[in-house]
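ok here's the first one, seq then C-alpha cells
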Amino acid sequence: MPPKPTAIPKPTTEGEQFDIPRKNTLSYQPTHLGHNSPLPYIPTSSAKTHDPSGTLKLAFIMVGLPARGKTYVARKITRYLTWLGYPARIFNVGNYRRDTVGAAQPHDFFDPNNQENAQKRMQVAMTALDDMIRWFERSEDEDELSDQGSSIKEDEREDQDPEYDFEAKVAIYDATNSTKMRRRILMDWCAARNIKCVFIEMVCEDSEMVTHNVKEVKISSPDYVGVDPELAVNDFMLRIKHYEKSYETVTEDENNGKISYIKLINTGAQVIVNKVQGYLQSRVVYFLMNLNITPMDLYFCRHGESVYNTIGRIGGDSDLSWRGYMFSQKLPELMEKQIGAKKLTIWTSTLKRTIQTASNFKHPTVQWKILDELDSGLCEGLTYEEIEERYPEDYQERDNDKFNFRYRGGESYRDLVQRLEPVIMELERHHEPDHAILIIGHQAVIRAIYSYFLNYSHDELPYVKIPLHTVIKLTPKAYGCLEERFPVDVPAVDTHRNKGQSAASVTKAARDSAGDLTKLALE
C-alpha cells in the first residue's frame, strides 16, 4: 500500500476540476512510481487488485489532439454525473503543466523530438495520474472533497431505487494521451488498482471547426494571457502540428484487444463504441451520443401564480389566480420579443396551472408527465404549518437534508433529479439554433434543471430562488452558461422558503402578500 497522502488541494472549480499538483517542482517523483525513470513502474500482482468497500472505480481517459473538445466533454460528463449524485472529478494535465513549468511555453515545448521537454511533460502527466489514484483510494470519511461531488451518504442508500444503490467514484483524466504507449501505461497502472478505464477519443476532421475552437477558446486560456490573438492562434496551430507528429488514434487491437473506448467523430456526427460494459459506463455513452455543440437558448419559467400559492398550500392541481391569468396573457408578448423570427416550442407538465399558463401561445405545446411538480405524497394540498403540526419529525428532517428527504408516499429532490434525466437528454440533444424551447414548469422542477446547467451542488439545489412571473434565459457556452432574467410586470406572492424558516411565517407571508396585492389592485 502506498503511504497515506497529505491533504489534497481544493479544486479550482467546485465539484468539477481537481488539477493542482501537490509539489511545484520538476524533481518531484510521484510516490507510486518507485524510480526516477520518465516511464512509470508497472505494479506487479502484489499490488492492491480489489476495493474492499465494493466501490466502482471508473476512469474516463480523454484522447485527442488539442482543440478537439476534450475538456469541454470532460466538464460535461462531470457535471452530468455530479448532478445525478456520483462523485466525479477532472484531473486536467494541462493545469498541472501550467502550475509546474509555467503557462507561457512556446509551441516547441510540445515537440515530441525534444527529449528534455518530453520528460517534463511525462512527469507532469504522472503527477496527475498519481493524484487521481490517491483520490480513488481515499475513503468517503477521509475524502475532504467528497461532499462537493455527491451528497449521498451510506445510510441513505437503502431507500434509493435498485439501479442507483451501488457506490461509484468517477475520474476524468483530461490530456491528449496521444500514443499507444501512453495509453498502455495508463491501462496497466489503473488495472493494478482495480480502476476500470474507458477511453474517450475526440476526432475532428473539419479544419474550419478546429480553427473556430482555437479562436473561441484556446487563445483566451492562461497559456496566452497578454498575447496578440493572431500570434496566439499561429502558435497554437504549430503546437497542434507537433502533436500530429506522434499521434496514434485509438484502435481495438490495443491492450491485446481488451481496450474499452468511445470515439466521437466531428462532435458526435459519428459515435464508435468498443467493449464498453457496465451500467454507469453505458449511461455515459448514451449521454455522449446526445451531446452537441449547437448554440441554443433555453427559456424557463414557473406557471402563473396559482390559487394554492395565494393561500400557502403546496402541490395539488389548482387553477391560476387572477394574477396568474394576467401573467399568462403577457408571457407570449415577452417571448415574441426574445425569440424574434425563431421557432418556439413550449413544454409544460400535465397539471392545470402550467397548461393554463401556456394557453395564450400560438406555438406548439407539448405536455410532459415527467415535468409534473415534486410529489408531496400525504402532504399534497397542505400548508407548511399543517405539515409541521401533523408530521413534526418529518418537517425537521426535511430542513436537515432537503435534497434527500422523501415525503411520505411522495418524492425527494433526489428522486426528482432521476425522473428529470430524460428532459436533460432532450435539451442536450437539441441541435436547432433557430428553434427555442420554453419550459413552463414548477418550482422544484425548474430548480433541478437550472442546477444542472449552472452546476449547483445538491445542498444548494433545493434553495435556488425561482420566483413566479419571471422568465429565465440560459445560453450554454463551452465552459459555462450565461443567464438572464426577465420579470413580467405582474405582481405575485413569494413562495420561496429559506432553510430554517418557520412554517407559520411561510404561510402567513403568502397570505399577507396575496392580500396586499389584492388591495393594491383595487386601489
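and now the second one, same deal
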Amino acid sequence: MRLALRRVLLPLVLLSTGCASDPPPPRPGPVAAPENAGAAVLPARAEPTSGARVAIDAGADAEAPVAKDAKGARPRLGSIGYTTWIVSDKLAKNRIGQVRPGTTIPLRSEAPVELPRRSDHGRCKSGRLYEVEPRGYVCEDDTVTRDLEGPLFRALAFAAPREGARPYDYAFTTRAPMYGKLPTEKEQRRAERRMWPIEKLAKVRRSTDGHEDLDELTPPKPTGPMPDFLAQNPELPLPIGRREGLVRKEIPYGSMLSFSHSFDAGGRTFLLSPDLTLVPADRVRPFRPSSFRGVPIDEAHPLPLGWFRKKPRPRYRRDERGSFVETGEPWAPRTFVGLTGKKVEHDGDLFWETREPGPIYARARDVSIVREPEEMPDVVAPDEKWIDVSLGGGTLTLFEGKRAVYSTLMSPGAGGVTQDPKMKTEELVRAALTPLGRYRIAVKYRATQLTDEATPDPTSFWISDVPWVQYFRNPFAIHAAYWHEDFGSPKSGGCINLSPEDAMHVFGWTEPHVPEGWASVEARRDALGTWIVIRK
C-alpha cells in the first residue's frame, strides 16, 4: 500500500508522513505545512541536536542568574516545552526558527528586552524577549527556563539528541503505552490488558510497505542504569504542552519511536523517549543502523562513475573473440565503480569501460551514470552550490559550479519517475511522485516529528525525530530514512530519502546554515537556500 499524502496545509506542525516512505498498514499518512512556509514548510516543532545542557525557568525571578555555556562566556536560554519559537523582531510576528526542549541557545545579553506598550506584545504575551545569537528573539514564556538545575530541564537534557547521523535509537512499534511514570507490575497489567500478549508479538504481521526493512524482532536491551531522576521519583517530569497521566498516550501500531536510553526496572526493559515517557522495550522492534553512504568526488574517485542499485550486477570482460562474458564476481547492491568514459556497443547491448584493471566492463542498463553536466542550470551562478537529483537514476550529486563534490543514491517517490513538471501538488501527493523542477532549500530541521495531525502531540500516527530534514517545495523535503536502506529505488511518498549518514552530510553542506542551539532555520532574502534541480 502506498503512503497517500493528503494535501493538508496545517499551521504550526511539520507534516510529512507521506514523504517518509510507503505507509504503515493502519493508516496512510500525509504531509502538511505550517505558517510562514512560503515554498516549503515551517513545522510547529523540530527535533534537533544542539548546545549546552544547561538552562533557565519561566517562573523564576527576573533577577535570577542566567545559564552560562561551558566556558562561562555567554549566557544561555533553555527550552522546556513545545514550541519555543525564535522570532525575527520584537513584535514576534515572523517565526524564523525553533529551540528544542532540553537544549539551550546562546543569548546576546542576560536581561530580556521589555516592551513598554501592551499593543506591541504581539505573540509574546509577557512583553519580554531575549535577544539570541546570531539574530532574533525568544519570548519569555512558559516554554523557556531560567532554572539552571530544575528537574524538568535536567530530565529533558538527559534525553536530548546525541551527536552524529542518528541522534537517537529508533524502533517500529506494535502498539505500546507511553508511561508518565515508572509503572508498577499491577499498573502495567491494567494498562496493557487489551494489547497483544508479549509472547505473541512475534506473530504480529510485519509491515510490507518498507517501514520494517531494517527492524529486528529482538527487543532493545538495557544500555545503562536507570536515570537518577527516576530513581529518586518514579513520576517523570511533564514537559510544557504535554498531557498528564499514568499512560500519557499510546503509540499505535506502525508509528515509529525515538529513544535516548534503555534500562532495566523490575526485570523489564524500558525505553526513555525525548518527551519523557517510558515505553516497554518488548513492545517494539528496533531498527538497526544502515551502513550505506555515498562517496566524495575527488582525485581518487573522479567522474564519471556508475552506481549499482537494488540487485547485484555482473562484471564483464572481453574474451579473445571480443564478446562480453561475465567474470562471476558481481558488484554488490548499492556500490559504485569509476568509469573511463569509454563505451562499447556489442550485440545490441551497451557497455561502459570501468577503471578496474582488465579492463572490466559494466552493462549500461545495470548502472546509473553520474557525470559532469554539459551545461549549468540557468538559475545557478558559475561557482554556486547546487544539488542534482536524477529520479530515473536514483542518484543525488552535490556540485559547486560544474565540479562535483559528493554523490550518492537516494529514494524518490514510490510512484516512479515523474513525467509532467507541471503536476499540481495534490496530484503528486496522490501518486507518490517527487516534483520535477528547480527549487531552493527553504526550511531546515536538525530532526523533526513527521505526522498528519495538526498538533505537536499527535495520537494517531507519527514518525519520531526524522533527522536532517530540508524542505524545498511544500510538502516535499530531503530527509534521512532510518527505516530502510533501499536507496536508489522509488520508495517514499514523494520526498527524497537518504541514508542518515548522507542526509547529515548534505544538511551540513547546504545553505542556510543552522546556527548553534537552533533546532530549525528558515532561509532569508540575505541568506538564500541552496538550489536543488530535480530531473527525470
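notes on #2: The chain has four domains: 7-47+374-535, 67-158, 169-286, 304-370. Residues 304-370 form a domain with the SH3 type barrels. fold (CATH 2.30.30.40).
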